[in-house]
Each structure stands twice: as structure tokens, then as C-alpha cells.
């Protein structure tokens, strides 16, 4: 701890700026952040990879990167996008080879992480993906046809009944060439999916744009911000108005409308009209409520107790506190605003420690501000009084995330701040700088926030979820019953090479240090499908099926079966080899693909 320093600082809490000079900065030794070699972390952190299109898995508090999970990108080490199944999944969801992941959210039961699924958006192409946390693998992608960019991503709490994708970019719906230059006809939608099976259920259409989102804790309200209530298409137009919205969706009302058939089917999706003038918004129980907040808000998040939705001002130095239950009582939704705290410049996102504090990133000020939620409700609007502490970060933070902050019961110990700029913090690596994910210990309110670690990050994470490690139960070998393809054992009858016209099918097992066939002979122009099972049952013994000059590298973890199809279009000898270092004879784990010339 930094007891000595903290006592002095906290003595003058009211005037505390939390700005520590460099030599005052807390060192890692002050807090127990060390995870000695061979020991495990207490938490998983799942970070989005931004326009890398993937998810990164860190251990907290060590901040070691444990794994990456490809999602919308093609990735050779894990063979993702190479084998037929993942290749088809990417093809059927649009055929793109990249995406822009922002908001990784883990499924919950009873407002607690259940460790089953992780969902994440694609801001680039309007998609949502599901990752199976038993295997740490993307297992389904939904292309949302009424979205251009899906930004916010979240689930309806307490039980993840819906997965929500929030459409950011206003476009004609359907976007088929109509209304090209008539932006007043553009719109966006909130899309709802079921988690398992992962299916698209319905959309709600609005005229404004939608941005970040978060769910209330009791299954009733879902909130998003909107920064383009102006329905503009230029920066000047989108920032013209003094206010924009927090848009509150009443989910049971929307379900009633769906059940009553009050929707239009667009692109095969039932779309409910949630626009301001919609008849469904007349009367006592509007489907969608539009709450005025200062211009161009960014993040919105719900407090762990489910009482408040807090929206960050971005262009305005305040956070707006909305009392959720009041939305059911007031005629004017603006009357549900119960607080507006002046936090500083460029507030983007807010996280929670479960002790009544909110932590908000200040992009412009390069700080995190800690403030008291109830004090913000009691204080006059625009007051700075609820602010407890401001701490410099390095530099220009976007999201920040506290351990289990998105649940009903945050752990209150660790906070990661995802800084967009690292400037001088690391050895220079050329003009593309790493980002800087900074770890803070927030478990001691007397000592204040303690910066304990800088972590350089490959571009460009936006958000994260931190989940207690004991909530997950990952598999270390595949259960063949979980896979679609049949297991191929070492039995002779299960291993064969079969020809049908110019299609060749190979089924073979593999293990240390060979493949089922030493040679596979095909003819120039054949379409070849190889299915292979890694029959090892020992964990951590991974093989791959790599074929030079055919763009094939399929990873095969223990007990895993995968299939890959390619065309043998050049005669010659190609050494099929294993790219995972699996044993002392790893280099000898090979087979020959012999492609005979077509006369
Ligand atoms: Cu602040 Cu996508 Cu949550 Cu970045 S986010 S833009
Ligand atoms: S701290 S404001 Cu950043 Cu140790 Cu007291
Ligand atoms: Cu199997 Cu290397
Ligand atoms: Ca605006």
C-alpha cells in the first residue's frame, strides 16, 4: 500500500486532484499484483481487439496475454477461417476477412457471470458473434441485415435472455438503393438475438442513430445513447443540437408488439416502429422513451444495483444520472433525470466498484475521475462536489472496466483503463504505437486509486469484461460429441482415400509423429477434402495440417476433428506437415501430397 503518501493526500480530500508527479507514482510493489511464475491469475479479462477483429484474453492482475480468439478475422495459428466449418461461417456472414470488435460481454444468470458465452459486435459490417467459453472459440456469427455498423453490444439482464446489437450508422432500411441522398429517410435499429440457439429475433427502428448500450438489471429496460438526433450526415450537422438522447427501450412492450403482429418484415426480420411519432409510442406505456441529454453523449452503463443508468457527455463535461424506475412513473422522460455531475472534459465510459462509486474516463483530460453516485443525485446539477478523486492516465482513455462491473456485484479490486495513446510510455516501435492498458488497484478507498501496471497492447481494444476465473470451466481436450464431424480413429477402416470424379476425399487420423497416410496421390485439378482427427488424449499436444502453396493450415487440438477443402491446381510434390511443435520428432511429422500432371 502507499499508506504514507495516501494519508497526506487524503487529508485534503476536497482539494485532491489525484495528480501524482512521476516520482510519486505508485510502484507495483505497493500492491500485491505479482503473480509469481507458475501461479494463476484471479481473473480473466476479455478485451476486444478493435479492427484486428479478434478478442484477447488476459490474466488479471498479471496483465499477461493468455490467448487470442479470432472472431471476424482469419488467423492461421488457430486455423480459423482455414478449415471448412469456420471458412463457411465467415462466408455465410458476408465473406469479409476483418471486423471491428468493440464490446465483449459475457453471459450472466441472475446478474452474475455464468461463464458460458461471450458475445461481441462487428462495428465494420453489422454483425454479432458468439464465442463458446468452453473452447474459447467463435462458434456462430449473425449478419444483421438492417445494420451497417453494429456498435453497442450487450445482453438483457438478469439472465441474458436477449443479446442486443446496436446499429450505429443511419442508412436507408432496407439499404437497397432507395433514398440514397435523402438522409431524413435513414434510420437505425436495435437488434435482439436469442443467445442459444444464436438466432436473430427482431429489430426496433428509430430515426436517430444509436450508439453504446447497456441493460437494466430486471429485464425491463435497455438503454442506448444517440449522438445524432439531428439526423445529420456531416460532423457539423451531427453536433448542431444542444441535446441528443439516451434512448430507453421497454423490452416487454416490444415483445407485446411483436406478439400482436405490430411489425413490418424487412430483410426477413420483424421490425417494430419505435420512432418518436410511432403510434406504439402514444399512450401510457411507450415502447421507446427519448431522454434529452447534453450534446453527443457516448457511453451509457447501469449501476450494479440496477437503480441508475449513467450517460457520459463526451462533448459536455458531465455525466447524467437517470433513475430507471422513474421511467415508469413520469409523463416526461426528462423527469427521470435525477443528477448531473460535472466530472471533467471528454467523459466517455463509466465503471463501478460495488461500493457506490463510479469511475469515468476523461478522454480530453487524460484522467479517470472517481465520484460518488448517491452524492451526484443529492448535489445540484452541474456540481463538482460528488467528485472524490481524479487520477492521470497515459493517455486519452476510451473504456475502463472494473472487475465484474457489468454484473450486479462488482468485485471492487481491479480496474483496467484502456488508453488510446501511449506516446512516451514504451520503447519506440515505429509510427504505429501500441495502446496502453493500465491496471489500477481500487480496493482501498482511503489510499485512492493506485496505478500499478502499464501494458502495451496491439491495436486497438475498446472495451473489456473482467470475470472471476472460477466462473469459467474451459475444456482442455475436445469432447468429440461437441463436434459436428465424426471422430477418425487409427482403425484401418476409418482411414481411406476415395475418388468420385475429380473430387478426392481423404479421412485420416494424426498423432505424434505421423498422419494416417504417408502419401496422398491426386491429379492436377482435383478438389481435395481432407478430414483429420488428432487422436491424442493428452492435453496441450496440438498438431496442425499445413499444406505449402495451398494456403492451408488447420489446427487440431487433442480429440479434435476438422475438415479442409482445396484445389490441387499445380502438379508437384507438397510436404503436408505439422506446424505445432509437438514432440522431438515434430519436424518429421509429415506426409506427401503428390499431384500428378493432367496428361
Ligand atoms: Cu467508447 Cu466502441 Cu464503447 Cu470506442 S466505444 S468508439
Ligand atoms: S491518489 S487523490 Cu491518485 Cu493515491 Cu489520492
Ligand atoms: Cu504434430 Cu508437430
Ligand atoms: Ca448531436
TrEMBL record:
Subcellular location: Periplasm
InterPro entries tied to this protein: CcO_II-like_C, Cupredoxin, N2O_reductase_N, NO_Rdtase, Nos_propeller, NOS_propeller_2, NosZ/Cyto_c_oxidase_sub2, WD40/YVTN_repeat-like_dom_sf
Uppermost EC category: oxidoreductase
Chief localization: periplasm
E.C. designation(s): 1.7.2.4
MF terms in GO: calcium ion binding; copper ion binding; cytochrome-c oxidase activity; nitrous-oxide reductase activity
SUPFAM superfamilies for this protein: Cupredoxins (SSF49503), Nitrous oxide reductase, N-terminal domain (SSF50974)
Keyword Metal-binding appears in the UniProt entry: yes
Any matching Pfam family: nos_propeller_2
Keywords noted in UniProt: Copper, Metal-binding, Oxidoreductase, Periplasm, Signal
Boundaries of every Cytochrome oxidase subunit II copper A binding domain copy: 499-599
GO CC annotations on file: membrane; periplasmic space
Record field: transmembrane: none
Descriptive protein name: Nitrous-oxide reductase
Amino acid at each position: 500500500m502507499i499508506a504514507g503518501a495516501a494519508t497526506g493526500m487524503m487529508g485534503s480530500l476536497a482539494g485532491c486532484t489525484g495528480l501524482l508527479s512521476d516520482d510519486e507514482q505508485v510502484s507495483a510493489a505497493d500492491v500485491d499484483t505479482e503473480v509469481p511464475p507458475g501461479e494463476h491469475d484471479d481473473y480473466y479479462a476479455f478485451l476486444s481487439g478493435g479492427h484486428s477483429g479478434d478478442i484477447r484474453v488476459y490474466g488479471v492482475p498479471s496483465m499477461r496475454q493468455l490467448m487470442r480468439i479470432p472472431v471476424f478475422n482469419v488467423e492461421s495459428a488457430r486455423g480459423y477461417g482455414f478449415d471448412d466449418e469456420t471458412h463457411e461461417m465467415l462466408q455465410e456472414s458476408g465473406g469479409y476477412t476483418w471486423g471491428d470488435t468493440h464490446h465483449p460481454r459475457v453471459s450472466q444468470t441472475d446478474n452474475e457471470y455464468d461463464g458460458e458465452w461471450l458475445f461481441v459486435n462487428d462495428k465494420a459490417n453489422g454483425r454479432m458473434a458468439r464465442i463458446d467459453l468452453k473452447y474459447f472459440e467463435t462458434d456462430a456469427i449473425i449478419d444483421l441485415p438492417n445494420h451497417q455498423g453494429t456498435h453497442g453490444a450487450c445482453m438483457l439482464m438478469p439472465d441474458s435472455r436477449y443479446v442486443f446489437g446496436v446499429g450505429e450508422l443511419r442508412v436507408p432500411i432496407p439499404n437497397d438503393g432507395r433514398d440514397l441522398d435523402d438522409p431524413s429517410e435513414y434510420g437505425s435499429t436495435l437488434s435482439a438475438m436469442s443467445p442459444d440457439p444464436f438466432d436473430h429475433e427482431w429489430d426496433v427502428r428509430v430515426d436517430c442513430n444509436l450508439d453504446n448500450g447497456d441493460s437494466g438489471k430486471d429485464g425491463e429496460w435497455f438503454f442506448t445513447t444517440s449522438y445524432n438526433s439531428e439526423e445529420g450526415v456531416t460532423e457539423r450537422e451531427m453536433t448542431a443540437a444542444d441535446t441528443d438522447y439516451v434512448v430507453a427501450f421497454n423490452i416487454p412492450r416490444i415483445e407485446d408488439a411483436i406478439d400482436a403482429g405490430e411489425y413490418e418484415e424487412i430483410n426477413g426480420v420483424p421490425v417494430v416502429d419505435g420512432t418518436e411519432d410511432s403510434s406504439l409510442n402514444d399512450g401510457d406505456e411507450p415502447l421507446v422513451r427519448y431522454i434529452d441529454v447534453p450534446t453527443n453523449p457516448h457511453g451509457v452503463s447501469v449501476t450494479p444495483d440496477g437503480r441508475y443508468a449513467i450517460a457520459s457527455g463526451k462533448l459536455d463535461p458531465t455525466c447524467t444520472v437517470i433513475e430507471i424506475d422513474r421511467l415508469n412513473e413520469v409523463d416526461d422522460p426528462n423527469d427521470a433525470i435525477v443528477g448531473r455531475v460535472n466530472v471533467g472534459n471528454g467523459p466517455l465510459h463509466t465503471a463501478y466498484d460495488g461500493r457506490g462509486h463510479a469511475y469515468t474516463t476523461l478522454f480530453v483530460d487524460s484522467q479517470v475521475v472517481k465520484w460518488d453516485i448517491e452524492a451526484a443525485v443529492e448535489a445540484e446539477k452541474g456540481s463538482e462536489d460528488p467528485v472524490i478523486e481524479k487520477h492521470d492516465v497515459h493517455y486519452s482513455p476510451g473504456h475502463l472496466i472494473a472487475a465484474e462491473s457489468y454484473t450486479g456485484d462488482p468485485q471492487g479490486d481491479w480496474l483496467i483503463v484502456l488508453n488510446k495513446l501511449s506516446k512516451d510510455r514504451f520503447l519506440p516501435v515505429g509510427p504505429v504505437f501500441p495502446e496502453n492498458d493500465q491496471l489500477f488497484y481500487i480496493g482501498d478507498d482511503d489510499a485512492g486509486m493506485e496505478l500499478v501496471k502499464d501494458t502495451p497492447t496491439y491495436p486497438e481494444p475498446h472495451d473489456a469484461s473482467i470475470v472471476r476465473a472460477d466462473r469459467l470451466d474451459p475444456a482442455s481436450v475436445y469432447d468429440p460429441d461437441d463436434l459436428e464431424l465424426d471422430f477418425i480413429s487409427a482403425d484401418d477402416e476409418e482411414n481411406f482415400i476415395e475418388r468420385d470424379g475429380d473430387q478426392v476425399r481423404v479421412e485420416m487420423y494424426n498423432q505424434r509423429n505421423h498422419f494416417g497416410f504417408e502419401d496422398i496421390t491426386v491429379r492436377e485439378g482435383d478438389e481435395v477434402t481432407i478430414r483429420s482427427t488428432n487422436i491424442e488424449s493428452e492435453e496441450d499436444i496440438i498438431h496442425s495440417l499445413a499444406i505449402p502453396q495451398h494456403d492451408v493450415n488447420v489446427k487440431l487440438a487433442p480429440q479434435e476433428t476438422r475438415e479442409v477443402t482445396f484445389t490441387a491446381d499445380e502438379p508437384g510434390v507438397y510436404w503436408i506437415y505439422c506446424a505445432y511443435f509437438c514432440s522431438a520428432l515434430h519436424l518429421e511429422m509429415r506426409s506427401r501430397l503428390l499431384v500428378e500432371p493432367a496428361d
